[in-house]
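Annual report, structural modelling task.

Input specification for the tricarbonodiimidic diamide complex:
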Amino acid sequence: MVRIPALPYEYEVPSLSQLALVIIDMQRDFLEPGGFGEMLGNDVTQLGSIVPTLEELLDFCRQKGLTIIHTLEGHQPDLSDCPPSERKRGKGSLTIGDEGPMGRILIRGEPGNAIIPELAPIAGEIVIPKPGKGAFYATELQAILQKRGITHLLFTGVTTEVCVQTTMREANDRGYECLLVEDCTASYFPEFKQATLEMIRAQGGIIGWTSSAQNIQKALSGLQ
Ligand code: TIU
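The model returned the following structure:
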């Protein structure tokens, strides 16, 4: 058993084999100009600040042999998995499926839909394409976790209050012990990130725990 200093109290991990690092949607569509994030009217440059810390945590988790899961928000080219309601949102000049500077917006396989190069998956890592905000909806994620005996999830990625929080809530309802890594998640709205951290760990950890990348690395460093 390892104990990671966290809020609202220590997060206990029974063994490394039961723990996975989940990296949510670190895609060009959200972090670079010309993608879905900018199309919605956001300043996308804000999300880049977490990349060095997340890169370091990913590298550490790889060295420890943890299961690594990357998720990718995107839709089929024929938009068969995209509810019409989603395409109408925002009322910007471009919407999901339209041609943008990085290819068709939020469409699987387009250049803009790829994970940023710094965090690109390597052989053996799990990549979960997802049509929704939550990574459990219409994906294989739960079956993969069950098969591997994973019970504890470290959450990172973007955006804190949309895809990260939705996925963490889905995981919590399915019985997973969830920790959100505070310095490895970002929002276009810093106040929404802060509110999300607080609401997750409120009420005795109603959705889960929060902690820092350094706390995790320190606590797990002695384990094999
Ligand atoms: N718009 C926004 O904040 N987020 C998304 O649309 N998707 C994710 O959070 N990945």
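The chain has eight helices and ten strands.
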